[in-house]
Amino acid sequence: MHQIILGIESSCDETAAAVLVDGVLRSNVIASQEVHAKWGGVVPELASRAHQEHIVPVVREALKEAGITKEALHAVAFTRGPGLIGALLVGTCFARSLAQALNIPLLAVDHVQAHVMAHFIRDGQDRPMPDFPFLNLTVSGGHTQLVLVRSPLDMEVIGTTMDDAAGEAFDKGAKVLGLPYPGGPLVDLHARSGDPARFPLPKPALRGLDFSFSGIKTAFVALVNRGEMKQPGFKEAERNDLCASLQGAIIDHLMAKARRAIRLHEVARIGIAGGVAANSGLRERLQELGQRENVEVFIPPFAYCTDNAAMIAMAGHHLLEAGRLAPLDVVPIARTH
Ligand code: KG4
Ligand code: ZN
Q: Which of 140, 189, 283 has most ligand 1 atoms within 8 Å of its beta carbon, as the pocket-test mutant?
């Protein structure tokens, strides 16, 4: 008999559903919320409402694309946290109700751990997957972590951010330059034609494997404001070099900590995941680091790096195999780390 799992993601500004049949992805549907762009960031209240609107059609579409009815499902996996509490509540309530109505197991997934599962999504494409153990750099709008992954259910966080996440550093820097939210992809784009050495930014002096991006951000804001005072229009005139310098400083910091972790834990493989893993500069620098340190590098396809439900269903698959079911009265948690 086939094992069919529905995954549901609603932790931030993406409402997503995916269907996994015997561990293979059959459908992966995402409704992104456009309402936040004009506010320069995600507005929690608007996110919850948009999840309410999207969740039924998104799940229906995922089932339709997979060619199954809801009665064929064997389990429902959903994001329990971390994330925006109102947004999480929508996915949690939906998943609980569906599992109860169908009398099937409920699987509560940790969103940050699920990002790591992006490496293992099978969708018919032939792609190398990392053997265990490996080191993962999880970088998104809400998280920045170095994780030792021993198995799908055994992950140890060995480094985390003390302040902003890497994606937040990109987005806040972009905002100062007048670029719309989310600014990360635009910084990436402009940085390609810029000189990263043009505007030196501080290197965070943090011991161990933890990250801090607030120093880079503060210096960048001061740099832009000073430039504008001296020469109005500075941020437009120097946009490429400013983006390249900001991106370079963020990546330098990420790579410095990754190299340290590789050496300290003698890892043979490194992967990246999360929305910032889409950054072309980061991908290039990770490949270089891998060559220099003699470690294998794994970068999942972009669609599985940003928030999606395929990774939630995949994490759920392992929870189900291990018999780790959630009670039907499970509640979401905004912060898990
Ligand atoms: O994983 P994700 O979709 O959502 C969270 O779990 O947070 O990540 C979104 C983040 C945003 O901060 C966005 O600016 C960043 O990923 N991002 C990028 C790029 N594409 C997305 N940052 C830098 N370069 C990119 N190409
Ligand atoms: Zn995420």
A: 140
Q: Any idea which residue has 């669609």 for tokens?
A: 303
Same-domain pairing of 57 and 80: yes
168 CA closest ligand 1 atom index? 12
CATH code, domain carrying 108: 3.30.420.40
Positive or negative CA dihedral for 335, 318, 60, 25?
Answer: positive
- What is residue 85's predicted lDDT score, i.e. its pLDDT? 92
Residue 63 sits in the same domain as residue 182? no
Cβ contact 143:165 at 8 Å: yes
Which pLDDT does position 134 carry in this prediction? 98
- Amino acid 253 reads H
Is 67 in the same domain as 202?
A: no
Ligand 1 atom showing the smallest separation from residue 141 Cα: 7
For ligand 1, whether the C-beta of 84 sits within 6 Å is no
Residue 53 has pLDDT above 80, yes or no: yes
Q: What is the pTM of this model?
A: 0.93
Domain range holding 80? 4-124+305-321
- Residue 188's nearest CA partner among 251, 244, 256, 234 is 244
170 C-beta closer than 6 A to ligand 1:
yes
Determine whether the shortest distance from the Cβ of 167 to ligand 1 is under 6 A: yes
Query: Over the Cα atoms of the chain, what is R_g?
Result: 20
**Residue 330 placed within a domain:** no
| One domain, residues 259 and 147 | yes
How many Å lie between the centroid of ligand 1 and the Cα of residue 300?
14
Average of pLDDT values for 217-241? 97
163 pLDDT band, cuts 50/70/90, is very high
